[in-house]
């Protein structure tokens, strides 16, 4: 029996599965960064235009979206841009 050749195949399979399992994590991180940057830019624009944001400043909103992701970005949008928001 040649154990060496069977180990090589399992190493490739493990690397392949590890790569595919990391892709969603990397995609999630990129989405969080993108949404955080977009919220930061929008919050800065709103802050300069209206001189205020709801609850906290643009940095805190950006950090919240970076950690909380799409759901916090949705909360930001509802608070600042939806028909519910005061204009």
Short description:
With 87 residues, the chain is mainly alpha-helical. It has 3 helices and no strands.
Spell out the blueprint of helices and strands:
Layout: H1 3-50, H2 58-68, H3 70-81
Helix pairs in contact: 1-2, 2-3
Q: What features would you describe in this structure?
A:
The protein is mainly alpha-helical and 87 residues long. 82% of the residues lie in helices and 0% in strands. It contains 3 helices and no strands. Helix 1 runs antiparallel to helix 2. The radius of gyration is 22 Å and the shape is elongated. The chain starts with a helix and ends in a 6-residue tail after the last helix.
Describe this protein with a few key phrases:
mainly alpha
Low-confidence stretches: none
Q: Could you state the order of secondary-structure elements as H and E?
A: HHH
Number of helices: 3
Shape: elongated
What level of helicity do the residues show?
over 70%
Described by strand count, sense and barrel closure, the largest sheet is: none
Helix and strand composition category: mainly alpha
Strand content: under 5%
Average pLDDT metric: 84
Q: Which value, in Å, is the CA radius of gyration?
A: 22 Å
Query: What is the end-to-end distance?
Result: 76 Å
Q: Count the beta strands.
A: 0
